[in-house]
C-alpha cells in the first residue's frame, strides 16, 4: 500500500513538473507576437506558435502541431511513470530492509 501511495504521489508531482516545463516557454514569450516576435508553447517540441515577423507576409500566423503536442504529452506521461516507478521500488526496498 505504501508503494502505491508513493507511486501516485510522485506521478502527480512529476506530471505537474512536466506541465510547468511545457508552459515555461509560453510564459517567457507571452505577448511577443504584438512586437514582431512569436509566442511559443511546448518543450522539447514547440507545438504552438503565434505571431512572427511582420516584414514577411505571415504577420498574423498561428501554428498548432498536433503531432508535437502528442509527443510532448507522451514524454510528460513517460517521465511521470518513470519517476513514480522509481519511488515505488524504493518504497518497497525500504519496507523490506
Tally of DSSP helical segments: 2
Low-confidence stretches: none
Calculate the terminal CA-CA distance, rounded to whole Å.
Answer: 16 Å
Shape: elongated
- Helix and strand sequence: HEEEH
Number of domains: 1
What Rg, in angstroms, do the CA atoms define?
19 Å
**How large a portion of the residues is in β-strands, by DSSP E?**
5-15%
**Strand segment tally:** 3
Q: Tell me the strand order in the biggest sheet.
A: 1-2-3
Structural class comes to: mainly alpha
Mind summarizing the main beta sheet? 3 strands, antiparallel
- Helicity, in percent? 55-70%
Average pLDDT, all residues: 86
What does this structure look like?
The chain has one domain. The chain has two helices and three strands. The chain has helices spanning 2-29, 66-96, and strands at residues 38-41, 48-51, 62-64. It has a three-stranded antiparallel beta sheet with strand order 1-2-3. A hairpin with a 6-residue loop joins strand 1 and strand 2 (48-51). Helix 1 (2-29) runs antiparallel to helix 2 (66-96).
Short synopsis of the structure:
The chain is mainly alpha-helical and 97 residues long.
Task: Using brief descriptors, characterize the structure shown.
97 residues, mainly alpha, three-stranded antiparallel beta sheet, 11% strand
Amino acid at each position: 500500500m505504501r508503494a502505491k501511495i508513493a507511486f501516485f504521489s510522485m506521478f502527480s508531482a512529476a506530471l505537474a513538473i512536466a506541465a510547468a516545463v511545457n508552459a515555461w516557454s509560453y510564459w517567457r514569450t507571452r505577448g511577443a507576437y504584438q512586437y514582431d516576435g512569436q509566442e511559443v508553447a511546448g518543450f522539447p517540441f514547440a507545438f504552438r506558435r503565434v505571431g512572427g515577423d511582420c516584414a514577411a507576409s505571415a504577420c498574423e500566423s498561428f501554428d498548432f502541431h498536433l503531432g508535437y503536442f502528442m509527443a510532448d504529452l507522451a514524454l510528460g506521461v513517460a517521465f511521470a511513470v518513470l519517476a513514480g516507478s522509481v519511488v515505488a521500488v524504493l518504497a518497497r526496498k525500504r519496507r523490506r530492509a
